[in-house]
Amino acid sequence: MIVTFDLFSALTDSRTGASRVLGDLAGTRGWSQSGEELYDRWDGHNKALQRTATTPTTFHDVSLEALHRAWRDLGHDESYAAGDLSLLEESVADWPLWPDVAAGIADVAADHRVGLLSNVDDDLARRTRAHALVDPALVLTSQRLGAYKPSREIYARAAAEVAPERLVHVAASARDVRGALEAGLATVRLVRPGHVLDETGPRSSVEVTDAATLAEAVAGV
User: Fold this and answer.
1) Using CA atoms, how far apart are residues 118 and 101, in angstroms rounded to an integer?
2) 183 and 156 Cβ atoms separated by less than 8 Å
3) Does the CA dihedral 134-135-140-141 come out positive or negative?
4) How many CB atoms lie within 10 A of CB 11?
5) Which residues contact 50 (CB under 8 A, 6 or more apart)?
6) pTM
7) Domain covering 2-13+97-219 assigned CATH 3.40.50.1000 in the classification
8) Which Pfam family would be a valid example here (predicted)?
9) Three-state SS at 115
């Protein structure tokens, strides 16, 4: 069995990592918003654009357009966007993993091959701290699969990529849980701060609040 993890919700505390960078930028430029406020505005546009993104559009392209829109919304100079995105992408190596991740993945990896299933480009995935914890041959990105979450297509292509082995996906965000379940993947929800499920959306029958219990949960799927 192959077990994939969502990169920027289940494994990485991306809001904390990116907000530090954006907070420093805001302080330097005298902007009134906090790093968290800037991140939330950018992330909202990122998620919206990913819903309709298709290849050959890259994750970098989506992120840049999202940053342009965020700065435009807030009345900031859009000419900063390209340089600001470069800083964010470079900083990804410093974005923290959730504290339970390293041990939790190691426990799962004792019995199964583990990988990532993420909307990022290949080079960005390689910069993350999570990349070193999984099988590099199983880093299933939007760039590799040619589709973006939450489209069912990315999950179907991921399952086909690892066939005939069975794929189980560990997701945290509402759209990832919903996308994986609607595509028919066996799905474990790993609860993370700031992520709540859609009230009308499907729910995984297996849910854990700590990665330390993931190995047991995956075995029971």
Assistant:
1) 16
2) yes
3) positive
4) 30
5) 62, 119, 148, 149, 150
6) 0.95
7) yes
8) Hydrolase
9) strand
